[in-house]
Amino acid sequence: MTTMPTLFISHGGPNIVISDTPARHYLETISDRVPAPKAIVIVSAHFETHGVTVVTDPRPEMIYDFGGFAPELYKMIYAAPGAPELAEKVLALLDQAGLDPARLGKRGYDHGTWTPLKLAFPQANIPIVQVSIDPNRDAAWHYAVGQALSPLREEGVLLIGSGHITHNLRAFFSVMRQGAAPDPSLAAKVNAFTGWFEEKLAANDTASILDWKTKAPFPSENHPTDEHLMPIFFAYGAAGEKVRAERVHNSVDHGFFANDSYLFH
Fold first, then answer.
1. How many domains does the chain have?
2. What digits encode the pLDDT tens for the residues 231-251?
3. Most exposed among 65, 148, 166, 171, judged by the fewest C-beta atoms under 10 Å?
4. Which tens digits make up the pLDDT trace of 59-72?
5. Number of neighbouring beta carbons within 10 Å of residue 244
């Protein structure tokens, strides 16, 4: 069986599924970029718990965890099944790694999961297991979660981290809702930050990547809080030690809100 790559995606706002943007059109190409997965394990920045939690729900429903968007978004359904047997395997791997995972029997798909997967795999026929982030843990911890689940790649499972390469919502909403002009200095800081990640990932400089808050330029301007970056460390860790990072998408909304996506081979 082909060893699966891993994937980090910037999932955008929930309206990405109806917006005519480069980021949306990129997400629609994912199924052409990866081998057909038998199942998906996804870590969403919108699934926050203390420690790591695995969802065993066989039929996840929908979570519309947003407000003020187009009414049609609240009627959308992504009916992909859960995968309880795979979830138990995920739990076992995390337990073997000493990560003390918790089990959650009922949880729907938040928009960090269903919006990108609705675009990437619209048939909704691939079983999905959801795994949480812990916003109080650092990059190295999320990297270790990815490492623990890396063996699943040999079984045709696609491991996805769904977050955002930059996530300054205060600046974003000031532009979107108040009509303010984008700050050109912020755009430069975003470019420096995303360019640093591209360089360090290409070099497989794990030590620098995991020390991003100290080493990367303008970390607080790009991530006032850390949760949306944590999925990239999961995907990077899950790809193994001899990883090759490919920046497969890098559009920018409003001059500063970056949508980078990486395939890790």
1. 1
2. 999 999 999 989 999 999 999
3. 65
4. 999 999 999 899 99
5. 13
